[in-house]
Specification:
The protein has 417 residues and is of the alpha+beta class. Helices cover 20% and strands 16% of the residues. The chain folds into three domains: 230 residues, no CATH class; 56 residues, no CATH class; 51 residues, no CATH class. The relative contact order is 0.21.
């Protein structure tokens, strides 16, 4: 018996209770706790009695003041435009585009997650994806046959890390008193998306910059045609008519939020997964009659439904969570379904150092609610996106190293060769 796809999608379209405004003094961005990573078995959940590692969850809130999410404050954030850690040597070329449709990828979120290593004193993970569900379908399908090398992706993860002493930021921690400044300027960015490096320049005004021909065409149609004439006719060739990078059109990016990190609450029960699955049914229906008992028997026999019930139980501890993070050696992802999970053989090695990858964090479907994505047949949707990173967080003199993401979709969209 397959789980109902509508129930799964309901996780992210349910309205959330308004949170009370927080009037407490603002605190500096808290990095995620460093943890040693080790290889793990991705086959399935073991039933051993090993103590479960502590999971950190990411919650969204609107920035309390302008400028809070700038790159020199090392933020964790979702939506808007990325706060690049290395502001000069950005990913470019095919790295910035969807491997299927070829369009520039859209920024999803970034996590500031330093580890106890001199080369990774600052460390941020960036997530980008194509907003096309058709491309995500192809990505999910091809991950089963993906080989080592440079496969096509519609979801891309970049890891950037810097030592404490670097050319971009002070070696002292931010004071968060409006006196913090970066040590150098950033690369010129696309005037349309504000995300990728603006390698292309408008042939007429020679001022506006773009990451792609598509974004140049979109900017032209949206009004740059007139702005371009103003710039050309201006004696000072003013660029004031160009949109400020960082204030790109709202339709080109998802809403911007700060990600705050919290500990996952402990369960109220020490029962096993099977008991938790039963309790969820009981909570909804009360004492079961014969029909409900028969349904529960079928439920317990179905691996997907049991996995989904446990997924729900864990999410219910913090329904607004958009991210789960744990880099401990025995950490495992929280899968929504038993189908569509990778085996250890499906997880590639690091393409840079050839070492193993380890699970680090996953993105939850509730993020789509905050991004205002509608629940329509062709809308972007996922059960979870799980991110695996280099266990040794290798430093290969490459500013942005691409990591690995595993996409799990809902039952009606899972395809496996």
């Amino acid at each position: 018996m397959e789980p109902n796809a509508d129930k799964l999608r309901g996780l992210r379209i349910t309205s959330l209770d308004d949170e009370e405004e927080d009037d407490e003094p603002e605190l500096p961005h808290e990095p995620l706790p460093a943890a040693a990573a080790a290889a793990e078995d991705y086959e399935d959940y073991d039933d051993d009695e090993e103590e479960e590692p502590e999971v950190m969850i990411g919650l969204l809130e609107e920035p309390k003041r302008p400028g809070l999410l700038l790159r020199h404050l090392f933020p964790s954030k979702a939506g808007g435009i990325p706060a690049w850690l290395d502001p000069v040597n950005l990913p470019s070329g095919n790295s910035s585009c969807c491997g299927f449709c070829g369009e520039p990828l859209q920024f999803v979120l970034q996590i500031y997650a330093p580890i106890g290593d001199a080369a990774a004193f600052h460390r941020t993970l960036f997530v980008f994806m194509c907003p096309s569900m058709a491309c995500l379908h192809r990505d999910q399908h091809e991950q089963w046959t993906r080989k080592q090398g440079n496969p096509c992706r519609s979801v891309k993860i970049f890891r950037c890390q810097l030592p404490r002493s670097n050319a971009f930021y002070s070696s002292e921690p931010p004071k968060h008193n409006n006196s913090d400044k970066p040590l150098c300027a950033e690369a010129a960015l696309c005037h349309w998306c504000g995300t990728w490096k603006g390698d292309k320049i408008c042939g007429s005004c020679k001022k506006s910059r773009y990451c792609s021909e598509k974004h140049q065409a979109m900017h032209w149609r949206s009004g740059h045609k007139n702005d371009c004439l103003q710039i050309i006719n201006s004696s000072e060739a003013s660029s004031s008519v160009l949109p400020a990078v960082g204030k790109v059109p709202a339709r080109t990016s998802w809403p911007e939020y700060q990600i705050t990190i919290d500990h996952e609450a402990a369960s109220d029960s020490d029962s096993n997964d099977e008991s938790k699955s039963k309790s969820l049914v009981m909570q909804k229906h009360g004492k079961p009659d014969d029909l409900m008992q028969s349904w529960m028997d079928q439920f317990e026999a179905d691996a997907d439904n049991q996995c989904w019930a446990y997924f729900q139980e864990r999410i219910s501890r913090a329904p607004q969570q958009v991210l789960r993070y744990c880099r401990e050696s025995n950490a495992k992802p929280l899968w929504a379904l038993s189908a569509g999970r990778p085996s250890s053989a499906d997880i590639p090695s690091c393409p840079y150092c050839k070492g193993p990858l380890c699970y680090e964090f996953q993105i939850m479907p509730q993020l789509l609610y905050f991004f205002g994505v509608k629940n329509e047949p062709d809308s972007l949707d996922w059960a979870t996106i799980v991110v695996y990173t280099c266990q040794g967080s290798c430093d290969q003199n490459i500013s942005y190293k691409e990591e690995f993401a595993w996409v799990q979709l809902y039952p009606t969209t899972i395809t496996r060769p």
